[in-house]
Amino acid sequence: MTKAVGGMKIAVIGADGQLGSDIVTTARAQGLEVVPLTLAQMDVADAGQVQHTVAGLRVDCLVNTAAMHQVEKCEADPARAFAVNALGARNLAAAANAAGARLVHISTDYVFDGAKLAPYLESDCPLPLNAYGNSKLAGELFVRSMAEKHYVIRVSGLYGQSPCLEKGGLNFVDLMLKLSRERQEVRVVDDEVLTPTATAEVARQLLRMLQGGAADGLYHATAEGSCSWYEFAREIFRLSRSPVILNKAGAGEFPAKVPRPKYSVLENGNLKRQGLNVMSSWQDALAAYLRDKHGIS
C-alpha cells in the first residue's frame, strides 16, 4: 500500500459494514494507507483484544464505526449495548492514547429526544429516549473525556452501498425500491423528521476533517436539509420514476416498540464554523446514490 501525503495511516473498525466499507474505499481512493478491521477481527467490547490489536497496527488514526445499533435489540439487552457502544468506545480511547493515535468515533442523532423541533446544535443538551441512545451517549462521553486526540461525529439516517451488518437487511432506499417492484401501493410514516445521509458523504466529510486539520471535539455531519420518511420515499420514487402509489401511514399504523425521537435533524455547526462542511443536500446525495448503485439517472 502507498503512504498518504504526510504519512497518514488509518485503521477502520467495522470495515465490512455500511459506513466502514465506504470509508475504506474513499480513503484508499485518496491515497491513504488503510488497515481494514472487520467486526469478526476485533470485538471492541474486549479490552484486551483491542489493546493488543491496536498496539500492533502502528496507525495514526482509528475510525470506529462498530456499534450495536438495532434499537429493539439494544432495549432488550442493554448490558450488551453498553458493552459495545459505551465500553467499546472507552477501550478504543485507551488504546488510541497508548498508540499516540487519533480516535474518530461515530455517534448518532438518537442522543436527542426530538422535543426541540429545530435542528440540533453540538451545544444542545442530549436526552436519549432509549437504551441505544443512552449507550451511544455514554460512548461519546468516554471518548471526549479520555481520548487525547479525537473527533466524535454524530450522523443520521444512514444508507449506503454495502448492507448494514448489524441490522441485517436492506437500507431504506433499497427497501423502497424493492417494495415499488412488488406492490401497487406503499405506505410510509410522515411523523418522524430526520436528515437521511449517504455513507459515501460521511466518508468524504471524515477525510476532509482529517486532512483539513479539524479541531478536536464533537461534530454533526449529516446531509443538508430535512424530511419525513414519507417525503424521503416520495423523492426515491420520483427519481426512480416508479409508478407505485405512495400514501401516508395512519396514526399508530406502524407502532414503535421502543420510543424514538420524532425530530432528529442535526445542524453541521462546528464543521461550518471551520469552513470544513462538504455535505450535499439530502436530495443531491440520494440522486448520486441511485445513479452509482442502481444506474438510475
Give a written overview of the molecule.
It is built from ten helices and twelve strands. It has one domain: Rossmann fold (3-Layer(aba) Sandwich), CATH 3.40.50.720. β1 (9-13), α1 (18-29) and β2 form a beta-alpha-beta unit. The strands form four sheets. A six-stranded parallel beta sheet has the order 2-1-3-4-5-10, with helices on both faces. It has a two-stranded parallel ribbon with strand order 6-9. Strands 7-12 form a two-stranded parallel sheet. By secondary structure, it is α/β, with parallel strands linked by helices.
Annotate the secondary structure layout.
Blueprint: E1 9-13, H1 18-29, E2 33-37, H2 47-55, E3 61-64, H3 71-76, H4 78-99, E4 102-108, H5 131-146, E5 150-155, E6 158-159, H6 172-182, E7 185-188, E8 193-194, E9 197-198, H7 199-212, E10 217-220, E11 227-228, H8 229-239, E12 245-248, H9 269-273, H10 282-294
Parallel strand pairs: 1-2, 1-3, 3-4, 4-5, 5-10, 6-9, 7-12
Antiparallel strand pairs: 8-11
Helix pairs in contact: 1-7, 2-4, 4-5
Shape: globular
Q: Fill in the CATH topology.
A: Rossmann fold
Give me the side-by-side strand order of the main sheet.
2-1-3-4-5-10
Give the termini separation: 34 Å
Index terms:
6-stranded parallel sheet; Rossmann fold; 297 residues; alpha/beta
Q: Summary?
A:
This protein has 297 residues and is an alpha/beta fold. It is built from 10 helices and 12 strands.
